[in-house]
Specification:
The structure is a homotetramer. Chain A folds into 2 domains: about 80 residues, Alpha-Beta Plaits (2-Layer Sandwich); about 190 residues, Rossmann fold, CATH 3.40.50. Chain A is of the alpha/beta class and about 290 residues long. Chain A has 8 helices and 13 strands. The mean pLDDT of chain A is about 95. Chain A starts with 7 loop residues before the first strand and ends with a strand. At the A-D interface, strand 11 and strand 13 of A face strand 11 and strand 13 of D. Chains A, B, C, D: It comes from Oceanisphaera marina. Chains A, B, C, D: Pathway: Purine metabolism; IMP biosynthesis via de novo pathway; formate from 10-formyl-5,6,7,8-tetrahydrofolate: step 1/1.
Chain lengths: ~290, ~290, ~290, ~290
């Protein structure tokens, strides 16, 4: 659900220290910003501190974002704090990549067109032409960029070009079914979310539902994670799960898993665009709502 | 799991206002207290603000609680703030009331004796003698206080007497199966947690599993709530749920519900003693962990 | 997921008795029908027996359905058995009724167009024009039949007319938001499924998410049930649930509930069309898969 | 919950074939046995058939088990059927093995002493003395059999001796924390259930909660499985799961996982003793209730 447009997200992290909370909250108080929601995490293992504040600036003046950031910087610097300011008024650009399977795309498009996900979708990229009609119905440009072993570098250059042209804030691999090259993965670090249809780290790689069937597990699930250079091994954002039994062949697992894939991926995108996710040491801190 | 003994819980609530967060965090900073965990909730409907901070005082001096509280008070008063300071070093006294069914009691005692619930249990009160042996094994005084329609006022006076003698911080009705009088309910407002074996507000009153069976529901559950003067209608703290089907007669529902009753009640007690629950307008704000 | 076309569903129920299973299984054996899946329930409370068999007829001859039924009848009659034969080859006609909210409709249409729900949808009926475009995109006739207090009888006659013209096997109220008259409810007994956005019997009637918010529950859910003459009180088929907390206002509960409404309703339709649901004494027996 | 004593379990499996159901049901009919519950599974992948029937023999005569079995055998043989008859009147002997952690043992003992698990516990075996007192309180013989790298063969011989002396039907490794030798594993094939505190096949081996923490998963779980020669790789019976987040260090994961370990293990034991589990090709068929 879209936040009011005067909502701001201030996120920050730094080494844990006395005063890390206060440096943020006292500044917001001085600036007469109203704290709507606030969460902190002090990681005793890594000694790192994380904070997310949702606030509304004073309504009696125009909020000067540049000024706000400029004045915050020297204070934050005292704590070696990395921080970011974002606003709900600016919907992030999300590029979606798909292959032939449409359930995750269909689900994201539904949440997009009904305003449940406060995003813009400037492009859908696919290595197959099948989902053009679905994109058309939503008036979203569809880029058919076929890929094979011979043209992979070229195709990825085209993909990256579309992403850059769109000024994408986030790339969502909604069952794209292709491994990205290390180059592309690296270029998209922290900016690309993949949905894998297993409870990672179980059943990495191809056909996880077949692997799950062969193993005879009694639960299957889905994992939304940031991509990195290791296949299906990036930082996990959120996971979902379903009970199954011996009567679920791979085909039934595939059918049963669809809903949980859709919901898990949409939740991860929602967390990301509301600035609820921090990447740290190959893992995530997620301030859920 | 028990918190380190130098953990303090500062909880506060007041009308929502600019500066409600800062008044707490800046004070903690001044006092050189380290914020371990912090949550806030700004209720846009009631316009009320809630905050919970877990902190550790400076380790290089003795923490003067009285001084800390005295200096906080005038600042908090500016916001009409109600607040409380508690410490993990002081385990709360929890009096447990039961009838004949022992699953919730057995579960609470296990968590108590293994240190998972950081409480003292100075007394177990029952209107039946059956669970004496279980209390004995844990070296906990057992008060057998039979009750019937004729002696109810008298028995409740005895109950209240035990509670007061023990300086109980919390009373847990672990399937006590007796309605408390309005007098006793009122005396225990906000200090007594009941477990009801249904998803309230569905199936209030007697034999909820029989009611659930008659209705043919496909989910049953348990609700932990503070007691008030209305039967099974007090502020809900937490709820749990289980899938069932047509083959579950009342006896099977009863069996299936036991685990979820135990877990739900233990979770509520855990939230309460870690000062995670606020009572407000007949509902609760619960900062879960 | 669609079953193979040579799949047959034989469902039966009768007073519990020695031989109720055998009368079915021995007949299937004689007819050289291969049992694929089989479930029974012997209700010790009502003394009633239920059986569902999924089978494939012999592949070396043409299966004579009429003959099969004719020969079964005298044997079934010995047990006062009510029974039905259905085939996966014949997709049931499902008429969907909606108002303005489209999430359940959108979900059902997705499952329909991808073959996950093996149904035909000959008509969508709505009292508002809003969802015409969604119907058009799926090439499904859309009947805009506005209703108000003055024209209710007339409108319901038109609704019933569409249902009859379509030879609907099932009517799905996918958030139709209008109470049906006793006449229409009665006409659709056992043939109309409604989705109600609460864990019935809690929060019947209007705005259940607002009711849930006011009560401060920590779980919300959805209930798919057959309609009857009592508002939101028909036999329950299946229910779904979500964890919520104090920060979920009615708007957030509404948003959070959407997914579980969709999934719960789709599951109920799936059970119905695969002949997994028996209506009995105001409750259901559901042989889940 | 204990079944009535005149309950019989008939389980069978064989290559899938026309008549596999009928051979059982027609025999039960002839013997005037009343079918209470019945489930079948026809595995299209392996071509194998499984059936479980719960029945009550005629109440007007003494049921001659030997005669029943003798007459069934030639018919079952026609289908190369492996079958077993068991009765609820005979509580299975379950030997429990533990190390120092007591949560699973405590839970099993509670279910045992309250009759929820219809078993006898003739022995508790431990490589540590710690849980003697808990065993004593339940009047169960406790065997303290320390083990180290030098005496492993000897200790396992003692373990096996206790198991055999007790005529154990089942061995439950309730967090035993020791790898069994291939010899002992083999001796206990299909007769020993282990609880592993991860969602297998993820996080095999030591300290799975630490592994889960390091990976940053958002779900943890427990897996009950039959042991075999491969560590934590035996056929899975049932699994349970819990949502976690970044704030759960290994210590918190351990605490949070306890409940789900207990429930998952108890459920597996329940399924096993009610003859609901078939071992087949390194996986299980489980007819849940």
């Amino acid at each position: 659900m879209a936040k009011p447009k005067d909502t701001y997200y201030l996120t920050a992290h730094c080494p844990g220290n006395l005063g890390t909370v206060d440096v943020i909250t006292s500044y917001l108080r001085e600036q007469r910003c109203y704290v709507v929601e606030m969460q902190t995490f002090d990681d005793v293992v890594s000694g790192h501190f994380f904070i997310r504040v949702e606030f509304r600036p004073p309504s009696d003046t125009v909020f000067d974002e540049a000024q706000f950031q400029q004045s915050l910087q020297p204070r934050a610097a005292l704590f070696a704090m990395q921080w970011e300011l974002a606003t709900a008024a600016q919907r992030p650009n999300v590029v979606i990549m798909v292959s032939r399977l449409d359930h995750c795309l269909n689900d994201l498009l539904y949440r997009y067109r009904t305003g449940q996900l406060a995003i813009e979708i400037p492009a859908i990229i696919s290595n197959h032409p099948d989902l053009q009609r679905l994109a058309d119905w939503h008036h979203i440009p569809f880029y058919h960029l076929p890929v094979n072993d011979d043209n992979r570098a070229e195709q990825e250059a085209q993909v990256l070009n579309v992403i850059q042209e769109c000024e994408a804030d986030l790339v969502v691999l909604a069952r794209y079914m292709q491994m990205l090259s290390p180059q592309l993965s690296t270029a998209l670090t922290g900016k690309a979310i993949n949905i894998h249809h297993s409870l990672l780290p179980g059943f990495k790689g191809e056909q996880p539902y077949h692997q799950a069937y062969d193993k005879g597990v009694k639960l299957v699930g889905a994992t939304a994670h940031y991509i990195n250079n290791d296949l299906d091994d990036g930082p996990i954002i959120t996971q979902g799960v379903e009970v199954v039994d011996h009567s679920h062949y791979p085909e039934q697992l595939t059918a049963k898993g669809r809903d949980i894939e859709c919901i898990t991926l949409a939740r991860a995108v929602h967390y990301h665009i509301e600035r609820r996710v921090f990447l740290h040491n190959g893992k995530t801190v997620v301030f859920t709502s």
